[in-house]
Amino acid sequence: MRDAVVKCSIETPLNDTLWYPGCPMIANRYVYNVRSIIPHVFRAFVIDIFLRLRGSKPIMMKLLQTGNKLFTAAAYFALHEWTFQRDNCSDLVRKVKMLKDSDMVKLDLRDLDWEKYVAINLMGIRKFILKEDFNSTAQQRLSRLYWIHQITKIFGIMISLLMIYCIVYLPFANYFFCL
Measured between alpha carbons, how far is 136 from 119 in angstroms, rounded to an integer? Predict the structure, then answer.
């Protein structure tokens, strides 16, 4: 499902996309928090600085806090295993199979084309909820965001390597050069 959402978000991007779509799955909460500082908090902070310089109201840190509250509320449901009783659905499938038009009614979710479902769902959200038109400028914007995303990843890797270098090498270098 995650891959289908990311793929459809890339193929038909929203007009006001702030970043290149992606959804890394990180099991450890502490690693997730550390890894989200640079791409989320730092980016929101920088955008707020640019908004202040333009004379606009800074909103990104507030949006980030709202998003974090949403993710925290949804995390309980996403991180636990759920078992549902589906006796009624099974009975309905059996009854529909007995009908002569059973091939017209699809009740088995294993046969569902999830990628198509997600694409139609995202188009509906875009058209009816966000009231956006389909235009080519969103694709051009996404192309620019892709390269900004790649540069940011390289920058993050360089900072991480520099931190590792400072933590590991410098204490030993001072020790050996002081002798």
Answer: 17
